[in-house]
Design a protein that fits this description.
heterodimer, A: mainly alpha, 58% helix, B: mainly alpha, Arp2/3 complex 21 kDa subunit ARPC3
Chain lengths: 117, 226
């Protein structure tokens, strides 16, 4: 088997195992990464929400925030794990597509196929 | 290590966007000269690997979480410029799609994880594995060491960027406008947790994959030179 094929299999395995990155922190009662707190947590930590931070923190609303589907926040860990795997698959897929796009712009082609669209 | 929106002030965000624009332009120019169409799948694999490995949050029990970046491995296999592009794609997808890392902080996050991490890791690996044969254990050690040190350099930089915010931006009453923690807290915390825990994760991931490739695909270890 070609090594690239093995890499893709490895990637699929990582995607399926990815909820470990959710379950282990939950199990060991570890909170957010340092410096990645939400506004509420910031209030608890320093007693106020820095004004600039409050304004900027809602600047962007991501379609799949924190690798979880909107409205699923209150569902159990198994739902979140499922969303996490889907996020991994979607993320890997889009990352690959973007790199292929960049590759088309940057890589030297052996043969120039000029397709009209 | 993904700085969210609101933790860095506009000056810091702007500076890092400007620096990264120059680095991205240079990276595309250099990669354009060397990248062949058949190498694009490896570039895609590198970017996807970095994306997914960052989802594996490792807990410090009762404390915070952190993760490997996988960027040192990508840099060893593809060279630092190609790795810079690959990790950038992963970080941009994380920011836009998943809100992991702020969009105003994409410049800073890419500087830390796509540029500095990839380049420092690559050159540490090159230096330690200098003249080592493809199958030698020194390569595995070099990979682990490069992963450990490079992740810590990136974490230290992140701590620095957090820590200078209270110096740059304050209200008249002394409240912080952005990241409220100064250098005396941000730097030791970011460095400490990565020196103690997360740096080892990057080290182990990098070393294990290099060890595996020595047997399975030694030809990949001959490349990565520019």
């Amino acid at each position: 088997m070609k090594i690239t094929a093995k890499f893709w299999i490895g990637m699929a395995v990582l995607a399926v195992l990815s909820p470990l990155g959710l379950i282990l922190p939950e199990h060991f009662k570890a909170g957010a990464a340092w410096g990645e707190w939400g506004s509420g947590q910031m209030q608890e930590l320093v007693g106020y929400i820095p004004r600039g931070l409050e304004k900027l923190s809602s600047l962007w609303s991501a379609p799949i925030p924190d690798y979880a589907f909107k409205g699923w926040e209150e569902k159990g860990l198994s739902y979140l794990s499922f969303a996490y795997i889907i996020s991994a698959i979607v993320g890997i897929g889009i990352t690959v597509l973007v790199v292929i796009g960049i590759g088309k712009l940057l890589a030297k082609k052996g043969d120039q196929a000029s397709g009209k669209k | 290590m993904h700085i969210p929106d609101g933790y860095l002030g506009p000056a810091t965000c702007g500076v890092f966007y400007a620096v990264m624009l120059a680095i991205w332009a240079l990276a595309s120019k250099i990669v354009k000269k060397t990248l062949k169409a058949r190498q694009v799948p490896m570039l895609a694999i590198g970017a996807a690997f970095s994306f997914v490995i960052m989802m594996f949050n490792v807990p410090i029990p009762g404390g915070t979480t952190g993760h490997a970046v996988g960027g040192v491995l990508v840099a060893i296999l593809l060279g630092p410029w190609a790795a810079c592009i690959a990790i950038t794609v992963a970080l941009v997808v994380q920011a836009l799609l998943f809100g992991d890392g702020g969009i105003t902080a994409i410049g800073a996050n890419c500087f830390n994880m796509a540029f500095v991490l990839a380049f420092s890791g690559y050159y540490i690996y090159k230096a330690v594995s200098y003249n080592a044969s493809i199958g030698s254990n020194r390569r595995v050690i070099a990979a682990g060491l490069a992963g450990y040190i490079a992740l810590n350099i990136a974490a230290g930089l992140t701590g620095l960027e957090f820590g200078i915010q209270p110096l740059l931006h304050k209200t008249a009453s002394g409240q912080a406008l952005y990241c409220p923690y100064g250098l005396n807290v941000a730097l030791p915390v970011m460095l400490g947790e990565h020196l103690l825990v997360f740096g080892w994760v990057e080290a182990i991931v990098t070393a294990l994959v290099i060890k595996y490739l020595q047997k399975q695909a030694p030809e990949l270890l001959e490349k990565g030179r520019e």
